[in-house]
Specification:
single chain; alpha+beta; Butyryl-CoA Dehydrogenase, subunit A, domain 3; Nuclear Transport Factor 2, Chain: A; six-stranded mixed beta sheet; 12 helices; 55% helix; elongated; RNA polymerase sigma-70 factor
Length: 303
């Protein structure tokens, strides 16, 4: 005869599962911003789940604080290991994009995951920080934790954490100045860019690009991509025009890419890339193009 769990035990397990589920969107938001990879973030959450169920939670005063600490420390460890892998990556490494249909309102869970700056531009700069600097910066600037909490989380003094956040903030500001663009303005400009790119209108594309616009591509060695950063509006214009001539059936779909208006490009009906844009003074100053098929596999938006 199979034994049944004691009712009190079952109730406790249900409460524990509910507590973890409630914290999950925030935990994923932390892990993804630390790692730039949906798969790695999910692995970290799975490890945290296992530790959660192996821990005596009766001694925990704040379950979510404990989970945040565990996820952040696991993310730091995983990022240290990933740094070595990314140094051997073919070409430029860009984060795995989080994509949602532009027409749909974010679900409550997605709204939590996407709260705060999640842009490809920010994650690109964060790759230049050390794992602990990245954690300190995110905890303070994105998740608004007190320095005392950050110090406990990282096992450092408050003074050391303040220094790390200050140093990281300066670097982020230098490499990625913040431009606030209304979403409707962002969408309208991208719609014009998509139409001009789809039809190969060279002059229209060029007019939407700042003179020193840059393009960063990530093919991961799986598909052709640029091994250097393109920083010339004329050359970027040529690239977009030549794609239409070479591929024929090129379509663009407006979507939310990492919480901001972006474009999905389809070639012959197949998703070819997810693209993020930085806008300044009504022009495109940066384009981040993720072409690595492994990073596009989870995107379910069709052309």
């Amino acid at each position: 005869m199979t034994s049944q769990p004691h009712p009190d035990c079952a109730t406790r397990t249900d409460r524990e599962d509910t507590a973890f589920s409630a914290a999950r969107p925030r935990l994923f938001a932390i892990a993804y911003r630390m790692l730039g990879s949906r798969a790695d973030a999910e692995d970290v959450l799975q490890d945290a789940w296992m530790r959660w169920h192996q821990t005596d939670r009766t001694a925990l005063q704040l379950a979510e604080a404990w989970l945040v600490t565990v996820v952040t420390r696991l993310s730091i460890d995983r990022l240290r290991a990933a740094k070595t892998e990314r140094e051997a990556y073919v070409g430029w490494w860009l984060p795995e994009p989080l994509v949602e249909p532009e027409s749909d309102a974010p679900s409550p869970e997605a709204a939590v995951e996407l709260a705060g700056d999640l842009s490809m531009a920010l994650l690109w700069v964060l790759e230049r920080l050390s794992p602990e600097e990245r954690a300190a910066f995110l905890m303070r600037q994105v998740f608004e934790q007190d320095y005392s909490e950050i110090a406990t989380l990282l096992g450092k003094t408050e003074a050391a954490c303040r220094q790390m956040v200050h140093r990281a903030s300066e670097r982020v500001q230098q490499e990625r100045p913040r431009f606030d663009v209304a979403p409707e303005v962002h969408r309208e400009l991208l719609a014009r860019f998509a139409e001009a790119s789809r039809t190969g209108q060279r002059d229209a594309i060029r007019a939407l690009l700042a003179d020193d616009a840059q393009l960063v591509g990530d093919g991961g060695g799986k598909v052709p991509s640029f091994m250097r950063i393109i920083q010339d509006a004329g050359q970027i214009t040529k690239i977009y025009c030549e794609l239409v001539r070479a591929m024929g059936d090129v379509r663009y779909v407006l979507a939310r890419v990492n919480g901001e208006p972006g474009l999905l490009r389809y070639v012959e009906g197949k998703l070819e890339s997810a693209q993020s844009f930085v806008i300044q003074n009504g022009q495109i100053v940066a384009i981040y193009v993720v072409r690595n098929p492994e990073k596009l596999a989870h995107i379910g938006i069709g052309a």
